Amino acid sequence: MGHTKTYIVGNWKMHGDAASARTLVEAVVVQASKMPASVEVVVCPPATLARDVASQVAGSRVRVGGQDCHDQADGAFTGDVSAAMLKDVGCGYVIIGHSERRSLHKETSELVRKKALRAIKTRLIPIICIGETRDERVAGKAYEVVGGQLWDSIPEETQEADFILAYEPVWAIGSGLTATTDDIRDMHTYILGEAAKKTGLATGSIPVLYGGSVKAAGAREILTTDGVSGVLVGGASLKAEEFCNIVASAAS
Ligand code: PGA
Fold first, then answer.
1. Looking at residue 161, what is its pLDDT?
2. Is there a catalytic annotation at residue 221?
3. Beta-carbon contacts of residue 228 (< 8 Å; ≥ 6 apart)
4. Is 168 noted as a catalytic residue in this protein?
5. H helical segments located in 17-104
């Protein structure tokens, strides 16, 4: 693991209500308290639950993130959530450019970059997602696509510890398929090299998480793969025992 911290991030997507969130977070708080300080546990509930979750985890080892934010500070944007609003309710992180936002909401890398910059200016850490589709991988274009997204999605103004990258091959999300550890190592090495070129930062200072059907069973193998600084977990982050086991697997 190149980076000194290990991030275990749960992306709840559009799931959960106040009661289910409370039970889930209770378990995660207990598990996180058993982990070394180098392990950062983050849960990203829907925006409606962010305040509840933030107050529940106050004083614990668990941090809270949003799942998206607008690129503007505020304004007439019905239905959107600003970075400042997430910050205001206690978030420290925000996922930006998830493939579901890119495909279902037609978000371009240019917009992703603006959102990430807004997050940074608001002192939230954006978790910037990049990843190729199955067709792009089959066509031999995985590196070209991921490299292009990376160059266009990372803001120019970044400094160390400002942002996190997440490599999520779209074909691995929610599909039960994970990339092989060889594929993950090769892509993460490539991402680290390109991100260092783009930002001028040292590769060791840029965390790159892996995401896509991460389960407790394979988590340790992924977390110990070169270039991997953590995991971004979707489906498995909604099950208390499964997610706690993923957190536990980050113990060195
Ligand atoms: P998954 O989702 O773990 O359910 O594949 C990962 C993600 O979309 O962040």
1. 84
2. no
3. 1, 184, 185, 188, 208, 209, 210, 222
4. yes
5. 18-33, 50-57, 83-88, 99-104
DSSP 8-state code for residue 59: T
Q: How many residues does the chain have?
A: 252
Query: Are the C-beta atoms of 209 and 9 separated by less than 8 Å?
Result: yes
| Four-residue CA torsion sign, 198, 199, 202, 208 | negative
Per-residue pLDDT at 1: 42
pLDDT in the model for residue 3: 66
> From the alpha carbon of 212, which atom of ligand 1 is closest?
5
Pocket test for ligand 1, best of 129, 214, 231 (most atoms within 8 A of CB): 214
User: Residue 200 contacts by C-beta under 8 Å, 6 or more apart in sequence?
Assistant: none
Q: Which two tokens stand for residue 139?
A: 């066509």
Q: pTM of this prediction?
A: 0.97
CB–CB of 188/222 below 8 Å? Answer: no
Query: Which of 3, 98, 136, 188 is flagged as catalytic?
Result: 98
Which residue stretches of the chain have pLDDT < 70? Answer: 1-3
Q: What is the pLDDT of residue 59?
A: 97
Show the tokens assigned to 252. 């060195």
Return the half-sphere exposure (C-beta side, CA atoms, 13 A cut-off) of residue 215: 10
- Contact between 29 and 62 (Cβ < 8 Å): yes
Q: Give yes or no for a contact between 70 and 50, defined as CB atoms under 8 angstroms apart.
A: no
For 171-224, how does the pLDDT look when each residue is reduced to its tens digit (9 = 90+)? 999 998 888 999 999 999 999 999 999 999 999 999 999 999 999 999 999 999
